[in-house]
Queue: 4 jobs
Job 1
Amino acid sequence: MSDIVQYALRSPAAVITLNRPDKRNALSRTMIAELTDAFLRAANDDTARCVILTGTGPAFCAGMDLDELRNTLGPEQGKVWEDATRLSALYELIYTLPKPTIVAVNGAAVAGGAGLVTVCDLSVSIPDAKFGYPEVRRGLVAAMVMPHLLRHVGERTARWLLLTGELIDGLAALRVGLVNQITSAENLAATAEAWAQALAEGGPKALAATKELLRGCSRQGVAVNELAKASAAPRLTDECRDGLTAFFENRPAPWVGPKG
């Protein structure tokens, strides 16, 4: 494991830290692979009763790595399906992990980063963190995160976030149920660690069984592999290619008319 994903045991929790602050902890292929390895390690680490996921720098996770995303418009177009499958598998791994998961949101959690927040069991955030799904503004579809977002915020708020692409701050995320608690940056780690201590008072088998029952009670109607396909397919369209090109060139997408 390289330095971009850090794993540390802070009893009773395994702490997994996204460590690409210069890239706003963007989800590169390497980071997705190493996050997968880290969560598998935590699942099999008998000394870890739960997992805390957090980030370094001013952002928690800004979504997919822009350089890799740009390349899928050209020479690496064939990687689109593979990328979607691996990210979808990571979300499913975190969501179904037998051990409770806590996400400590230290900054912006956007697109794929917001997806990471929704697949964790508990979430604590700083007030000025930003949450949102701007995918439609690039011609993309946030398919993989839809069922997880719906579980937390309900359909009305999910439609607002997914269809408008607007960002909300930590206080708004608390109001709609996307996070459990707001705290200061100085108290973020301490709050997550206090929750970890509380979770460790539960029996490991009872916690795992509770998580499994909760998953069964909120069974999603679309299979994980279908969600991955629905996320990948738009990247191969002209609309997405035009939208992403406009985004990379810092100009409005071609379907955006003049304002006013």
Job 2
Amino acid sequence: MRKPKEILRAGAGILALLAVAIFLLGRYLDRAATLAANEWLSSAFTVPAGVEKVRVRLMSGKLEATGLRIANPNGFAHKEFLTLKKGEMDVRIASLWSGEIVAESLRGEGLIVRLEKTDGRQNAREIFPAGSRKDAKEPGGKRFRIRRMVLRNALLTFPVAGGEQVATVERLEVEEPLGKGRSALLREVIAQVIARSVREGAGQSVERAYAGSLSAVRDAAGRPGRGGDSAGDGIKRIFKGSGR
């Protein structure tokens, strides 16, 4: 019969091996998720798009992404159309291995969207062309179903006569942002986040004028989020040559 000390040592050894296995599995899943996300993004857009890192938290059921970036088409003033500091999803773990990832919530922090016009071109229309929702093809891309979206600290810029205007959204919360029972590809999810934030921060007229094709995604998702047609938490104007 084994002594208690031997049993404790054996148990400690097993726990140590499990800890190492979980750590290695986590590292593997993080790399795989990051590669998959970048594959989806690069296939979803005609402009460069990617994410710095995706982390899979099996124990808590979370997906965390940092450093999402979507470039502007050539010819526009800003290098990037969209950046997101951090995004997080509470997901059903089993759905990670299915064709549809079910998220109880999507939370975004530090979103920046720059709407631009130049020589009759609009960057949002080129990045999300008309009919993109219908024709979107993302090889190997999963669909996402989202119950709730929370966006914090978003900054939007859009052109006005004589310069550009800046709008901020401190907090935006929307139930069923894609529409009740609906799922969408990754590009459609990003378009919906942009459409909701533009409407909340700058109003429906700006969304229609400068985010053009995004309204098709919004309308398909059902009722708009909190804020209606009014402007959001704060708007200021900055003129050409005054700095950004």
Job 3
Amino acid sequence: MVLVKWGWIDGRAEEGLQKAAGGMLEWGLHSGWSMLDNYWWRGTRFVIGKKGRDYKFRVKNLSDVRLEVVLTVDGLDVIDGRAGSTKKRGYIIGAGEVLEVKGFRIGHEKVVTFRFSSVNSSYANLRDRRTRNVGVVGLALFTEKGKEPGIESRARQGARPFAEAPMIRARD
């Protein structure tokens, strides 16, 4: 059994995908045939993975604008495998789209698959001898400059199907 601690999240513990960032997105870890369950312990969210099993991030954009997500595993940025930072670029996810990230990118087409393992066998330890953040995953979210999520739906909240209230009358 491997415990994974979540960072940079908000939301309540539920099964599978969890809402974050005020409901703008859902995210979680997928392994085998399903999303992994989430558990709360002492105010921290955990998932339990089976040692040796592969897993992937799944992120769904619930907003009506494009979002940028910066993802980390074991404190490492999933795009370049180096120390994670909110100053780095991330993946762009269109409105309503789902992103799946299967591993650390080591080239344009190649990835090192995410796998539940011991601290000593972790990618962070084997690559950089850094184990401080092993077992921690994170997500930072950025909206597109000048695009406010939900502005379209808020603009239509007062919309009416007719310019004026229809009169009640019999049809000819």
Job 4
Amino acid sequence: MQKRIMITDSHCHLASGRFTDEERAGIIRNAVDAGVHRMVTLATCLGDVQKNLDLANDQHVRAAIGIHPCDVHSAPDDALEILSQHVSDPRVCAIGETGLDYFHPAPDGWSEASFRKRQQDFLRQHFELAAKAGLNVVIHTRDKEGAASFEDALAIYGEFSEKVRAVFHCFISGWDLAERVLAKGGLVSFGGVATFKKAELVKETVKRCPAGSFMLETDSPYLAPVPMRGKRNEPAFTMHTARAISDQRGEAMEDLAAHTEDAVVKFFRK
């Protein structure tokens, strides 16, 4: 009998308001039935930390806790102190989602410079918390053009890379940037964008990443992969991305699952 392939959705948002309370258990069950036996659900603000922790009571789900860069303006100055109260919880497997977002405009009352500085300050605080807790960090970067958020996030990561590993999630850039993350001991993770017809840049990166240097994700409920593009994304769809990446790399699904699972186990607290 052939062994069933099992993979991890290393980045999803099960506490998102796009999923109702009544359907979340079914969404987790659908994922497990599809072969996605482990999910990491990420908090993006203080308000959804407890909901993510509650979801992590399921044997297949663990939580990461953090403040998304688009939420730093509404977070209190002591937000990371509040998060620190949860780091010893065994349901917490990483710090994040944190990072830098230069795509969205500064909110009312903030200049671009002041908003970016607050994001950078919060990112450093996330790294400091991770270093104290013995956890790793999940990073979001996004730009309208260029790679300024990536460059700034990578520089901040460099200040902590001897103590903490980081994953640059939903990676859609070229190999030249991915290689710099890996050189610092970090990882990248690939989601639905890697299945898009015109995403040649990230597909080339997928091919060049060494085994063990990347993970798979959905970022659900966003960015559903082909053939589910346009629908609400969910963890079960990680399998579509895995099959596409397996084909792009000319690699058996069994081998892809083996080394991405190894990367997951090494990155996230068991």
